[in-house]
Amino acid sequence: EIRESIILYKDIKKIDIKFKYSWYGMDTLVKLRVPVNYNAESTKVFGEIPYGVYERPPVPSNEYEESKYEWPAQKWVAIDDVSNQIGLVLSNDGRNGFDLRECSSGVGKDTGKRVLRSSLVKHSYYHIKAGDEYSTYDTPENMWIEENQEVAYSIYTYKGSWQTSRAWRRGYELNYALGAVAIKSHEGIYEESSSFVEIYNADHVYASALKKAEDDDAYILRLFETEGTPSQDVRINFPMSVKEAYEVNLLEEKVEGNIAIEGSCLCTSISPWEIKTIKIFI
What we know:
Layout: E1 2-8, E2 14-23, E3 28-36, E4 43-49, E5 52-56, H1 63-68, E6 71-72, E7 76-81, E8 86-92, E9 97-102, E10 114-123, E11 126-130, E12 133-137, H2 141-144, E13 146-159, H3 167-175, E14 198-200, E15 205-212, E16 219-225, E17 231-237, E18 244-248, E19 260-262, E20 265-270, E21 275-281
Antiparallel strand pairs: 1-2, 2-13, 3-10, 4-5, 4-7, 6-9, 7-8, 8-13, 9-10, 11-12, 14-17, 15-16, 16-21, 17-20, 18-21, 19-20
């Protein structure tokens, strides 16, 4: 059983698709299918990988790829129609297998257009090779029965490219949605609106982690560049003065870097796809 909800918004250019399902079948594959009315010859496909983006081939190159064709992506996949400078991004909250095919039925059939697909439910048998022979084993019941599952997708369209449209933000907005907390009215010391970390001059730089340091009372801030675009003037603002800050590696060991302190603001640069980790003393 699969229940699908499609949510439209008046002032937001997106469509939310939510699935609730319980699945008891074996040897099945269920896919979400999104027809895309783009020029097949000028289509480029991009998907998120850990701390980066990878361009995928829009079609399989041989019959072997055709039979197994699916590629992984994390929180989002984007399709750019380069000739018309338009595109679409499909974000998800936990389904990581995708492919792009020619439409064989429904909207776009026999037009050379494409359909973007995402694997929603997959249950199969174990196939184990011993020598030249394959043996098939039933999957344990607790691995193929799925009850009361929920999956969410969002579809956005844009003009330009996946970089100019900030496609990566769509995946993060779906996976890390803002939460509302109700509190009682009281006197407070903070302003009505404030942030512990604000990044300026670089919309393509994301703060992926802020935590206590492992060995002392400092804080660790981890940034990464999301679009392959360098920036020479990234500014990170805090609500209090920064006493000391320097760049560290992933083990929090000090390395050479270019961190400048201006009161409560840190100034640095970042290279394409760079992961930059900063140790901060407040």
